[in-house]
Amino acid sequence: LVQNIAGGRSVQSACLRPVASQMSPFKAGDLVYVPYPEHKEQAFRAGVVQELAADCAVVRIEDGGELRNVGREELRRRFLRSSGEGVASTSQDNTSLVHMNDATILENLQARHAEDEIYTYTASVLLAMNPYRDIQGLYGPEQCALYKGKHLGTLPPHPYAIADKAYRALVRDQKNQGFIISGESGAGKTETAKIAMQYLGFASGGAATDLAARIQDRVLQAQPILESFGNSVTMRNNNSSRFGKYNRVYFDSKGVLVDAGVTTYLLETSRVTFHSSSERTYHCFYEMLRGMSDDKLKELGLDRDKRYTLLAASDSGDVADEAEWMKQFQSRDVKNFQRLCEALGTVGFSQQAIDDCFKVLAGIVHLGDLVDAEREEGASEESCIELNDESLKNAAELLGMDTDELGSCLKRRKVCVPGRSSFHEVPRTTAQFRHALHSLIKALYKRVFEHTVQRINASFKELRPADAPVEGADDEWRHIGILDIYGFERLKHNSFEQLCINLANERLQQYFIENVLVAEQDLYRREGLEWTDLELPDATPVFNTIAQVFTTLDEFSQQQAKGLATGTDDRFCTDAVEKASKDPKQREVLSKIKQNFRRQAAGGLSEKDGFIIKHYAGPVEYNTKGWLDKNNDRLLQECEALIRDSELPFVQSLHSPDDPASEKRSGQVSLFKSISKKYSADLENLLATLSTCHLHYIRCFKPNEFQKPNIFNQKLVLDQIVQCGTIELVKIMHDGYPNRCLFDEMVGRFRELLPESFQRYGQRTFIEAMMLAYDVPKEEWALGTSRLFLKAGQLKALEDMRAEGAAPDPDKLRQIVSGIIRKRWVRAKNAVQLCNYLPHFLAEIHAKRAAVALTRHSLFVSRLFPKLQASRERLKQRRLIARRRLLALVRVVCWAKAKAAQVRQKRVERMAKALFLASKIYLRTRVWVAGARERASEAAKRIEAERRREAERQAEERRKIEEEKKQMEEERQKLEEDMRRREEEEAEKRLQEAAQREADEKAKEAQRHADLEAREKAWEEEKARLEAENQKLREHRNSILEVASPQGKRRQHLRDEDFEGKTRVSTAPADEDEFEVGDSASALRQPAVDPDALQKQMDERIKALEEDMRKRQEAVMQQMKELQEKNKRLEAQVAVQERTQNASPSPELSPLRMDQTPPKSPGNLRNSIAGRDRRNSRLSTVSSSQGNRRQSAAHQALAGNDVATQQDGTASQRKWWAEQRQFLLEDLFPESPGSTPGRTNRRASLGGSAANCIDAERNRRASQPAQRLAPHPEPEAEQENESIPQANLQKRFECADNDREGEGQAGQLRQQSAQQPRGNRMSTDSKVRQPKIYWNDRHGGAR
Q1: Phi, psi of 1034, deg, nearest 5
Q2: Of 312, 926, 1030, 1054, which has the fewest CB atoms closer than 10 Å, so is most exposed?
């Protein structure tokens, strides 16, 4: 029947059919309701029974007079309502209806809905029908004042009455109270919760303080915030809560509001990234776009009229239709935005926090515009997805992230290299990109929502009084909780969120059945009332099935998080169905989807895409695509790092740290965090909290699917009534007793209704006398062991009689007293008879028990004796067998002992033979072994002595080497100090000479100009000009000579003296004069100039030349320092290579000195001598056969091996410096008159080229300082030096080869200078390389 009424929804209800069957049989003329399955909205039709048959009846429908055959089990009795003034009366409580069935309840609700009476009682449960419009005068402070302190049922049904009952119970009983507000989406649960919260704030206002008023204000203002961030528009509700919440309001012992709190459950995060057409995502996005000013929207990069991907429907068709549909919410969004901002400020949000919150929301909107990005067709696997730069930039700026890092995180993923700790980046596919983007968007919004809830709770804690109890201790404070949770959902596309929502409704429905219906029946049985239990639905198999599905889901989610191929949605679906099919009970709850051709054509789900679960409200088809991702609450590590490193503090606060316990167990951050497990745990905690409260139920219903007023769909409402268990509740309350009172409570409240003479009776007798005295029908009340049970309305009648002061009839009281006395006599008689009968009865019982015991014992013995005899025979046989086995065992042991003795005898004989042979061998080899040991000991001592001598010799060699190093270091330091001292003296001397020369020149010039003016002015001016040019040339050459050689000072001094004596003769050789005849002839043709101007011009030119010379000297000195550093590095490299070649010898060989090499073979010795001869040939002017030819000054300076040469070293050096100076000038000025072919040929004879001369000079420098400082070597030392290997000598000249490259570059510069005109060449800033000194630390010499 219910299946026909509900349009195919199968609901098991055990009390629908018994309602009619328990009544008296139908007869002709009875008023009935019959089902109307043909109609889409109407569930029943009124009719009259015309005829009755065995199992059916003929009913005439009142609307059209139609006759229908209806089965008797489908008939519902009805009654005619009493009417007044043309309006039929309705019942405020369904338990007061004349006939109790689903049709009469539905008819009563429809009649009250038509009269705008949207609230109806069913015993203590309130049924609320959503009118989808405002009803004037139904809410407000005036209505709250009316219901305050009134008993339930005194005034029309209202949430205020339920809230007042809970508040008074909390203050009176000091026990927590709770509201469970349930219903489908769009039934008005959220509004009903707000109404109840409004009354609780009003009720606590009587004893309110300023603190309580502030808490009350925040409690009321928290609701708009939760609605904006947690509610959205769905096809079934324009303000649907997409999360569950449990509001707590705390009161002290006096009923004053002292604290509040909010707990949320399972926000539907998937709605942020996906919603169907005619739906919207969460309100806060649209309210921000519509209510925020244009300037702030511009700062956030938003456009009020732009269509954003995140805010548009995922499957929307026509954009124009969607925009037209959105217009209906624009005014409401503007209003709600202002309300949201005010509420955020009320609960403690600063303006900066509000702005930061909207920044994150705007950043999420910009991230949503990246969803449509895809990889280009035909692109390689290494190419990345191209993102919208503007949206990416706006999102990164608003979220405080780096644009490049955000784009890289979305476009690439990091892959760990197996066996290493390094990572490499791999481009994401389009699916992976969208998954990462959706995960980031959902995580950000979820954390913003949770952060908002935490801030609301923190705002309540800020107002806690100083003497508040510790959180969690309920000794002083009690609370009233209001549970507003999502209703049962059966949508077109049902996913993971719908399964969680329906699980919560299953648990709450079962909780309602267990705590209301089952508890009601258990109470009747405990009190001794006659009651026939009803068959109630059991949802335990559904719980177990869903728990198994969640367990399987966690397993596959972990596999997917680890990157295993088995972690897919298809395999999860298949595995879940297979596990459920193995359990008989779960097989009935969960079944796979049956696939057929029509289903495939309609685009339905396949067997691997989902399954079907049968809930209490009917079967639901679930799509398991994407469940593995939805079940993982762990954000990608790259995205988590972006949130953690954000520059915006608000976004940083959204960072979720890893679970320390999980990190400690696994050693690394867990990649999976189960949402299903957390949701199940939260649901269990919620039920545990509800178990501590006295619960009050409010069932919300929606009258139609269109969310429009004045439309009542009977089938839709009937379906909701059946689903929420209202029929079972009405049945129990109608057939049972909705009101029950303890005896002592009834006696205390109604003591004055009876005379004082009745006070001497017991409580039970007093209550029975009271009910009889006031003629309460016997079927309307019943006495239990401790309570009085009353039908609906009877308690109110007693309260009215007490209020009116009604007195019972005295005759009736006398009859009651007589009846009480008669009952007492009857009870006393029965007690005496019982006492007389009990001894005889007990004796009979004892005799019967003894006979039964004797019979049982005899029967037991008779059956046991044959078995005992058989057991004895078996035991005897076993003993005989055991004795035989023991005898055999003894014989075996004796034989084994004899054998063992024989074996021991043979072993002793073999041992004696072996000992004799060993002693014989020992005696014969003893002498030989002793000798061998002595020889080994002596050899060991010799080896030890050799090792000791070798160690001493090595130590002595190392000591000598260290001493030699110290000696060479001291010599090097002395040489450096000597050179430094000489340089300082020469520099000081040059400065003095330059100053003296400048003064002399000025005086001479003045005298010269005075003499020349008296003669010929023109000739004197020309002569002055010529002298100025000669002075410039002389200073330029002096600078070159000073850099080139220390002896340049002496030559310059001689030239200066010649100039002062007005002679043009130079002390240098004739071929060293660089003046040309053409210069003087050209100078005579120049015109005369002013002497003062000429003097001034000469002074300026002198200063300029001095400054230029100073700069050149500094550059030369800097170049010298660089070359010295380079030489040190090269020497260090040579030393390292020599140490590598001359590795430490083996312990058996004697170590060599650093300047020694191992003995060479004859071939190697010849090669070494030949190499040395070749190197010496570079310094020699003739071959070995021409030993008596004249040598150059450089060779004479180098050939300082004898004593005479050393004594005449100074003269040779001076001669060599002059020769080198002339060579340098020839290189600089090859075309000068002083450069003669003879000199060039003489220079070529020295080495063949300038490079050879430079090489010879370097070789001389490398050997001269050491020869100058060290004494004349002995013949043994010369032989020792000749053993130096050729490789060491070659490495000593490597620095010279490197410098030769630099000199080659200088030669190129000289060639370029030679190609220029002479005048330009004279003004060129020429740089001359000063001779460099390189130190050889190993041999104590310089080169």
Answers
A1: -65, -45
A2: 926
Q: How far is CA 348 from CA 109, 214, 245, 517, in A?
A: 44, 11, 20, 44
Q: In what order do the strands lie in the sheet with 119-122?
A: 119-122, 125-129, 694-701, 177-182, 478-484, 244-251, 257-265
Question: How does DSSP classify residue 516?
Answer: I
* Sequence-distant (≥ 6) Cβ neighbours of residue 14 within 8 angstroms: 534, 535, 536, 537, 728
- Contact of 199 with 159, CB cutoff 8 Å: yes
Can you tell me the distance from the alpha carbon of 78 to that of 99, in angstroms, rounded to the nearest whole number? Answer: 6
β-sheet with 787-790: strand ranges across: 739-742, 787-790, 781-783
d(CA 513, CA 462): 40
| Torsions phi, psi for 363 (to 5 deg) | -60, -35
Residue type, 418: P
- Dihedral sign for Cα atoms in the order 1137, 1141, 1143, 1149: negative
Specify the range with the lowest mean pLDDT, choosing from 287-291, 345-349, 808-812.
808-812
Whether the full predicted model's pTM is greater than 0.90, yes or no, is no
CA distance 808 to 805: 10
In 3D space, the residue among 758, 797, 749 whose CA is nearest the CA of residue 774 turns out to be: 797
Nearest-angstrom CA–CA distance, 651 and 645: 9
Cβ proximity of 1039 and 1113 under 8 Å: yes
Please give the backbone phi and psi of residue 781, each rounded to the nearest 5 degrees, phi first. Answer: -150, 160
User: CA quadruple 876, 879, 880, 881: dihedral positive or negative?
Assistant: positive
Q: What is the sign of the dihedral through the CA atoms of 443, 444, 450 and 451?
A: positive
Q: Is the pLDDT of residue 1179 over 70?
A: no
Calpha distance 118→703 (Å, rounded): 10
Q: Which residue would you say has higher pLDDT here, 210 or 1088?
A: 210
Report the distance separating Cα 534 and Cα 667, nearest Å.
56
- pLDDT tens-digit map of 825-856: 888 888 899 999 999 999 999 999 999 999 98
Alpha helices in 605-674 (DSSP H): 627-630, 637-644, 649-652, 660-666
User: What is the Cβ-side half-sphere exposure of residue 860, based on CA atoms within 13 angstroms?
Assistant: 6
What is the 3-state composition of the chain as percent helix, strand, coil, each rounded to the nearest 5? 60, 10, 30
154, pLDDT greater than 50: yes
Q: What is the pLDDT of residue 995?
A: 85
Average pLDDT over residues 964-970: 88
- Please give the angle made by the CA atoms of 792, 795 and 799, to the nearest 5 degrees: 145
Position 79, amino acid? F
For residue 230, give both structure tokens: 């947690």
More confident residue, 1053 or 749: 749
Angle between helices 1237-1247 and 1250-1269 (to 10 degrees): 60
DSSP string of 167-190, one letter each residue: HHHHHHH---EEEEEE--TTSSHH
Q: Taking Cα atoms as reference points, which of 173, 174, 165, 172 lies closest to residue 203?
A: 165
For the segment 932-938, the average pLDDT, to the nearest whole number, is 90
Full 3-state SS string of 1248-1287: CCHHHHHHHHHHHHHHHHHHHHCCCCCHHHHHHHHCCCHH
Strands (E), 244-364: 244-251, 257-265
Mean pLDDT of the region 899-918: 92
Minimal CA–CA distance to 412: which of 368, 363, 375? 375
Residue type, 1270: A
Q: What is the pLDDT of residue 994?
A: 84
pLDDT tens digit string along 788-821?
887 766 776 777 777 777 777 777 777 878 888 8
How sure is the predictor about 600, in pLDDT bands with cuts at 50, 70 and 90?
A: low
Residue/partner pairs of 116-121 with CB below 8 Å, 24 or more apart:
117/90, 117/92, 117/156, 117/157, 119/156, 119/157, 119/158, 119/159, 120/91, 120/92, 120/93, 120/94, 120/157, 121/92, 121/93, 121/94, 121/95, 121/152, 121/153, 121/157
The tally of CA atoms less than 13 A away on the side-chain side of residue 1246 is 24
